[in-house]
Amino acid sequence: MFDFDLTITRWDTASRFFRWLLWxxxxxxxxxxxxxxxxxxxxxxxxxxxxxxxxxxxVATLGRTLDSLPALVxxxxxxxxxxxxxxxxxxxxxxxKAHLQNxxxxxxxxxxxxxLAAGLLERAGLGEVPLVASTLRPLLGGLVRDxxxxxxxxxxMLTAQGFxxxxxxxxxDHHADLPVLLLSxxxxxxxxxxxxxxxxxxxxxxxxxxxxxx
Length: 214
Known about the structure:
This protein is α/β, with parallel strands linked by helices. About 45% of the residues lie in helices and about 15% in strands.
C-alpha cells in the first residue's frame, strides 16, 4: 500500500490544485477574503480547521461539476513548469514500478482528490495501478468533501474496494496513516518529520524503515 501526497509526490497536490483554482478567478479569492474575519480564527483550532478548508474548496469549485474536474486537472498539470515531472518523486516512482515488475499487488490510497491523483498517475505511466482516493459531492452550486480517504477511514475505504488488511508493506510520510501501519507487516516512512517519526515509532512494535526520497 502506497500513500500518495508527500510519499510519491513532492507536495500536497490537492491543496495546490485548489489554490490554483482560486487564483484563476479573482472573485473567488475575494469571497474567501471576505469570509476570513469569521472563518479565519477557526484555523487556530485543529478540530475546526475543516470548516474554513471546506469553504475554500466550495468557493474554488463554484459553478463547476464533478464531470468538469478531469479537464481542470489536465489544465492544472499542464500549467506546472515540467508537467507531472514537477510533482512526482523519481525514487518513489522507481520503487513502485519495481514492486509491479516483481508481480506484487499494489494499491495507492490517498486523501488526495480522486481525479487529481488519477491524472497525475496516468501521466507517470501508472494509470493502471488501483487507486483509492477522496471524493467530492455537489452542494449549493459547488463541490464539497464526500468520502475522505484519511486516517481510519482509509482502512475502511480500502476494505470496501477489495484491498483490505493485512498489508505486507505500507509506504507513507505521516502518522495519519498509523491505522494502516498497524495492520501492515512492514512499514516504510518517506522523509518523515521528527515529531511524526517519534509518534509512529512509539505506536509500532517494530522500527519503520526510513526512505529519504524528498
